[in-house]
């Protein structure tokens, strides 16, 4: 899957890491105290990283908004199957990810 539509370099690096299952790169892009929300509920980022990377990925990116910080597309999870999802990134002044909201897109 091509990630060239991703215009924010941090978001592109994160999605590229997700796509390839690269936990080390993925983790390096987040602030130490970064927050993760899944359909609005707090979720442990370390557990998500362990469970998702290598097992979940976008199969298409259909929409990129908010200066490249919000992504919507089709997604595959080895555990949950295929569905539309969103990833909404918030970056700190340093450029690292301070919050990631993920969830099923309508």
Could you give the topology of this structure?
Blueprint: H1 9-20, H2 23-28, E1 30-38, E2 41-43, H3 45-52, E3 56-65, E4 70-77, E5 81-91, E6 97-104
In words, what does this structure look like?
The protein has 106 residues and is α+β, with helices and mostly antiparallel strands. The protein has 3 helices and 6 strands, in the order ααββαββββ. The chain has one domain: Nuclear Transport Factor 2, Chain: A, CATH 3.10.450. A 6-stranded mixed sheet has the order 2-1-6-5-4-3. Strand 1 and strand 2 form a beta hairpin.
Strand content: over 45%
Annotated CATH topology: Nuclear Transport Factor 2, Chain: A
Please give the share of residues in helix.
Answer: 10-25%
Rg estimate, integer Å: 12 Å
Count of helix runs:
3
At the first level of CATH, the class is: Alpha Beta
Give the N-terminus to C-terminus distance in angstroms: 22 Å
Give the class from helix and strand content and strand pairing: alpha+beta
Major β-sheet strand ordering: 2-1-6-5-4-3
Tally of extended strands? 6
Tell me about the largest β-sheet.
6 strands, mixed
Number of domains: 1
The name of the CATH architecture is Roll
Mean pLDDT: 96
| Form type | globular
Low-confidence stretches: none
N-to-C order of helices and strands: HHEEHEEEE
């Amino acid at each position: 899957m091509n990630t060239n539509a991703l215009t924010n370099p941090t978001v592109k690096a994160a999605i590229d890491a997700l796509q390839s299952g690269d936990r080390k790169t993925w983790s390096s892009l987040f602030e130490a105290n970064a927050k993760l929300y899944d359909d609005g509920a707090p979720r442990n980022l370390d557990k998500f990283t362990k469970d998702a990377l290598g097992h979940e990925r976008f199969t298409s990116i259909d929409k990129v908004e908010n200066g490249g910080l919000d992504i919507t597309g089709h997604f595959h999870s080895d555990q949950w199957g295929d569905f539309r999802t969103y990833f909404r990134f918030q970056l700190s002044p340093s450029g690292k990810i301070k919050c990631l909201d993920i969830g099923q897109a309508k």
